[in-house]
Design goal:
By secondary structure, this protein is of the alpha+beta class. Helices cover 42% and strands 9% of the residues. The strands form three sheets. It has a six-stranded mixed β-sheet with strand order 1-5-6-4-2-3, covered by helices on one side. It has a two-stranded antiparallel ribbon with strand order 7-8. Strand 5 and strand 6 form a beta hairpin.
Amino acid sequence: MTTKNGGFEPVFCTIVPPHVLDQLSRAEDPDVSAPARRSLEHDAYQRTRRRLTTVLGATAAALPEGAAADQPHRTLYDTHHTQDLPGTKVREEGSDPGSDASVNRAYAGLGATFDLYLKVYGRHSIDGNGMPLDATVHFGEDYDNAFWNGEQMVFGDGDGKVFLDFTIPVDVIGHELTHGVTQHTANLEYFGQSGALNESLSDVFGSLIKQYALGQTAAEADWLIGAGLLAPGVHGTALRSMKAPGTAYDDPHLGKDPQPATMEHYVRTGRDNGGVHINSGIPNHAFYLAAKALGGHAWEKAGQVWYDALTGGDLKPDAQFADFATLTVKAARERFGADELQAVQKAWEQVGVPTR
């Protein structure tokens, strides 16, 4: 598995940030703290495994002989609450839905992600070459996360008290698979601003995948990441808000959403790889502002600009916010016109990121 940038960054990407699980692990209620602690342990193990896989080298899944790159090739597995990946095969491409709702939702979410990238951006799966899409459901006991491990998607069932089944929000599926797109293109380093860009790009395209599947305009979209994931009784609407970073939740167990919307409130921290899940709120908000200003379907103009910047070959692995912002301005100028250029420039200006 190689890229033009000289190999893949050993990234293990989860939808629920470690700082959230750490907060939950300290709750007095054992029904909240115990699953969070187990989830942190699972994640630590998988993170180590990902590093070893990267060092030793991993073989990308190949298309079946004679298969078309412009068609999805999905395989679903079930670990039956163990951690043994990938698990037992339970559904493959073209087979009918079964009785397991998690399997059916994951299958549909993989398809929705494939559809956006192919039909809107002409991309053949996440690697651009028709890569098969594998996913595993029912991972671990009450596992409070979903992740991309560099090779496949993995979904937990949630603990039922804070988080529900992680196959429920299609944008979670799109978010994690977009880490694969980034892995196969710019290969952004998972630390500091480049890591926050990595996370933001997954939120951007995760949101676009949901909007595309629902046929929503920028004005109709909720711009939430993970809506429907929080259990009843939790004080919050989602994991993150692109429209209003910092407002997604404010809960006794979860704490308050720490995301900033502008560089004025950029968080400097050594945790979470330099705050990659926190400071991603800034480029997230820039995308929302650009999409809102342009109107219509966000995937058509704002999404195209962001996709061009990600995949155009000029985005370096250690790119900072200003580097990416500059590339979006360049993409807007080259692909569209003055209105689009102005909308993109103004969006970055509003969040305090300079464009050179």
